[in-house]
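Reopening this ticket.

The earlier resolution said the output was attached, but the attachment link was broken on my side. Pasting everything inline this time so it's all in one place.
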Amino acid sequence: MSLLNDGLRGSAHKLALLATGGTIACTRGINGLIPTLGAEDILRAVQADLPCPVVARDVFMMDSSNVQPEEWCALAKATEAALQSSDGVVITHGTDTMAYTASALSFMLAGTRKPVILTGSQLPLDHPLSDAKSNLLHAVTAAMQGVGGVYVSFDYKLISGVRCVKTHTTAMDAFSSINGPLAGHFDVDGVHFNHPQLFTPPDNTEHRLRATLDPSVFLLKLIPGTSPEVLRFVKEMGYRGLVIEAFGLGGLHYIRRNLVQALRELEESGVEVLVISQCLHEKADLRMYDVGRNMLQPHVHSGYDMTTEAAVCKLMWALGQENSQIWLGQAIVGEYNEPKELE
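Inline output:
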């Protein structure tokens, strides 16, 4: 799907801009950059080039390092409310945790038929080399396409919210689509939406806001020699969910320090576990080896090729729903590729 940018001007669209802070909203203070610009200020910077009316609203103003599950819930509710009176929503956000926010919103707003586009910048609006205006106008243009789902628009790319990972700290090309194709891109011919975000709910229901999260999720990246006591700590501290970044296809060591036995004890206590690979590309698959098959229990799930961000957010979200097992049992918004059957 593509559309020439020039043909958009004057189109009968109305969008909402929700501002949350981040570098795009920063000005220089005594001790460095600090978010001070509100939604109206950001909108004013591109007003002359906007292809359609945009209504601005501030949700919060924070460095994205401080954005946590409570902010995700507030933002999901603000987005759903804005979608009631607009054709799409653009969200400005800091880049450090944008991929987490995009994943969380993808689950909480799963199945939305209108576009929700997150964007931001590597440099503040007033910097002479800033990417802020370009990214913002691209996000607005993408939101006018009417393609439902949650996406990140950054440096001429559109990335599904559950495939987005920040892979560079300073490059303008800050984000990558991991284990999935780009949702779309921009070029001289306009906007191309090639792979819209999927929606495959287990109960075949229509979209509705599910803005409840349980933040009691722990992330553990294994290293050779990780003590089984770490898994016991997870239970003792009251965590209800654990994401494990395992070795390769999902390996855990069991000689001398038996993580497999500790994981079995954790699972028996009712803690929900998602196992993904600490390799950035391709999948974890606990079915491949005998030790992995023995790990697959009712509360231990293979996350296949999910990103860390998507796995953490999905587990928080699933634990906030009435029946977490149903939501953990299949891909909801294309967060992983369905595995092939093993012979």
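Reporter confirms the inline version is readable. The longest helix spans residues 69-83. The CA atoms of residues 109 and 126 lie 33 Å apart.
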